[in-house]
Amino acid sequence: MSKAFVDPEPKWFEDFELGDVMTTRGRTVDIGDITSFAGLTGDHYQLHTDAAFMESNRFGQRIAHGPLTFSLAVGLVGLSGFYGDAITALIEITALKATQPVFAGDTLHVVATVTNHDASGPKYGTLGVTYSVRNQSGDEVMTFLQTMLAKRRKLEG
Question: What pTM value is reported for the model?
Fold first, then answer.
């Protein structure tokens, strides 16, 4: 049985408030994700692809690429429906920090917090959301600030 695609919920800049917090569902990283990301990006660095090399490394096993962790975080928030259809453009990513390694078998989720809410123009507002990417133990493995342009409701009158 097929299901129809459902458009995202209509949302506007004004639907977000400073301090809004949303937690995504989890997503387990597997070795196939790491291998596929290496193939997709061409980043075959030993930390990600050489299990024997990593046995003698301080981490003891292969680790996920930082950009893979970032991409999964953005995807988890996107899939949550948190933004609805409000976002029209990415402005920048800042303050990205990888604080702990991510391993195959780790289950990641994101705590997203609205930390900037600037109604700078009549058509669009600037929305800043801080992402705290956490593993199954609740340890933060990455954090960054994503700044986006969000459409505003039309002013009446």
Answer: 0.91
Ramachandran angles phi, psi of 118, nearest 5°: -120, 110
* 38 in any annotated domain: no
Q: Select from 146, 74, 61 the least CA-distant residue to 102.
A: 61
Q: What CATH number has the domain bearing residue 131?
A: 3.10.129.10
Question: Per the domain annotation, does 44 fall within a domain?
Answer: no
- Residue 125, class by beta-carbon neighbours within 10 Å (0-12 exposed, 13-18 middle, 19+ buried)? buried
CB-based contacts of 80, cutoff 8 Å, min separation 6? 22, 24, 25
Burial class (CB in 10 A: 0-12, 13-18, 19+), 99: exposed
Q: What is the pLDDT of residues 120-147, one digit of tens each?
A: 889 999 999 999 999 999 999 999 999 9
Q: Is residue 3 part of a domain?
A: no
At residue 106's C-alpha, the angle toward residues 100 and 109, to 5°, is: 80
